[in-house]
Amino acid sequence: MSARHSRLHAGFRISTLALAIAGSSASWAQATTEVMTIIGQAAQMEQALEEQRLSNNTESVVHADAIGQLPDENAAEALQRVPGISVERDQGEGRFVRVRGLGADLNSVTINGTLVPAPESDRRAVAMDVLPSELIQSLSVVKTLTPDMDANSLGGTIEVESLSGFDHDGLFYSLSTEASYDDNTGDTSPEVSGAFSNRFSVGDGVDNLAIAAALSWADRSFGSDNVETGGAWDFDDPAGARLEELEERRYDINRERAGIGLNVDYRPDEDTELYLRTLYSRFKDSETRQANVIEFADAQLAGERGDAEGAREIKDREETQEIKSLVIGGERQLGDWKVAAQYGYSEAEEDSPLHTPGAVFEGNDDFVNAGYDDSKQPNLSIDDAFYDPANFSLAEIEREQGLTTDTEQNIRVDLTRDWFMADLPSQLQFGAKFSTREKDNNLDVWAYEDFDTYGFTDDQLSLEHFVSGTTRLGPKISASALERLLSGLNPADFYDDEESRINDFTIQENINAAYLMNTVDIDDLRIIAGLRYEGTRLKTEGTGLNEGVFESVDTRNSYHHWLPGLHAIYQLGANSQLRASWTNSVVRPTFGQLFPGFVVDGNEAEFGNPNLKPLESSNLDLGIEHYMGRAGAVSAFVFYKDIENFVYDADLAGTGDYATFDEAMSYVNGDSATVYGLELAYAQKFSWLPAPWNGLLVNANTTLSRSDADIEQYNPDTGRMQSRSIDLPGQSDLTGNLTLGWENDKLSLRVSANYKSDYLDEVGDVLDKRYDYRVDDQLFVDLSASYFLTDNLQLFMAAQNITDESYYVYTGDRKYNAQYEEYGPTYKDGLTLTHF
Question: Where is each TonB-dependent receptor plug domain found (predicted)?
Fold first, then answer.
């Protein structure tokens, strides 16, 4: 249970007021039943459902079992099992989390109660694969925000809670070793993790000091194969869509994850609790990408052959993302008041040392007999000359290094008092929070070209001298050979001042918040009403380029929001309850959208928009929950969101200050958008059935949702603004999860499936929906099994993506490729030694 939730319910249980509640409402008293400590799938389900049941919010929970195991490899993949959640995958691994059809940038992530910033320079979204599952005790997706919570999510707030020493009665430790095999590359990768906790008696107390620590390390090597067009289709020929260019890619990747957490809880007396929560996670991603690039002389239909320009490219880069989180705080009962205070510090960093984001070898002449035969997976057909390295020469090398830091600090104070309102048991809560956030980005770029002017001969620049083997794409380019070539050149002669300076920026965001909230119990009805205030001050600093002249950019923006909220929970009986809520939330635009830099070159311009309005949403939720037996529950929720000021990218040419421009790309606020849907969930362990069927369990959920938003842009052909309706990017009409399991004291088996229907990924052209990018539906199926060799030693095995599901993005129509990528399945086995 999270600290926020446990404080609330503990307060009702131990006070005199709690006795009054118990006397007047048996159903509330029954809702505080303790959870049995059991290992396995049912234990995870039971703890998660109990936390969901007791919460004043509508939320979904994933809980570690008694030996500290989440059901999946990382936080993102564990969350995809709960209702309303879909996951963006990167190279086959779950990464960013979408909630109720809203993209990851519209949701927030907290670790132990403090906001997690984003390592990427342009995003607010936190990549959940940065957080190893071994460091996590529970994950909660809070979908209805109470006024005491930050209002900065439209879909939901993902709360990460790390291990506490009070989660176990005494000494606990767990050590796991694992090996995984990637079917695509044939590589085997190791992983090691461990956790420890214990309680100690300090002073006059008994077991009043709890210390918990966890660590994790994994080094995974894998790969993927890709073919993409980038949407380069010409749809205007009546004979059919013609392709202008395509690219074949091979990725070889190594990802090293390391994490450590240390938590200390101290209860010097029965009225006081102090705590320290720390977490450090490091994610090192090394990638080499070999590519073939083909540009047809004339756009071609499938099956046609013609001349084409060809190039070979390599990308070789390493980047390290780090997340650091520290939370220190405490709470104390002072007479009738409970006072809680907390300081939180978190920092995210992405460091990209000097690397090669792109090097290009161009063909010396056009290639003949070039074409493709499939519009979904364009399989390149071309003359054998394309595979001869002697026919390519080095054209350019780009080098860059970058560092992004995102730092957030906050102080919050909360006061809570139990009281009677007209003889009705109530709880009054109010508080304030002050937070400051700063995103800094620094990028340096070098562009090497025109090598012949520096004394290199054609022979020295031939691809033959940079080949280090072959792949299925042909000759393999050596990144180290390229670096040796550049070692004799002066980097200062190739420094790209424009790219380097324009992409440097600092964005500061300060938010002051206060709230007032009251909870009252009227027999079987609980009502929570409150008001939250958030005032935001934004400052951006960057550089623009206006007709070749650099200009400093310094903007200020501020806005204020009053956010009322009303929640109601009605106990229909001992095991059933209704929930209803009306909430309001506000999400600031992404840092990429607020980007202060710009470039104006003749009649073309590209720029961010620091003056964007924040997204505002009014949310309605209504649902029913029924709890039954061991790890059993069924629920149904409907939701509706009315969103104002959603942000999209558009060409402003022909309007306002850009009336004479041919192109002016930026970001604008839309008027309104809506998201609505239905969530259904069912979980049950069939413990009443005769053996062996009493080990059977099922966990299933589905979410049906719709969204609608209007976008507009000036149409130069008609001289008028033209609008159309779209789905919100990232919103799938259908998501679903199904887990079938079986377990007894020794053996645990699980098969799980995760499905999401297709969704809009990006608007390609506001004026023409044929150029929109959509991600095709995906179904991932995983298998896992574990067996206790002894009471403390467990063997486990898993197979992920056993159906070899691909990632497919199409342009307008499903048969026209934008990107197609395959990863292959992954197989794992390992051992866990546990004592508790």
Answer: 57-157
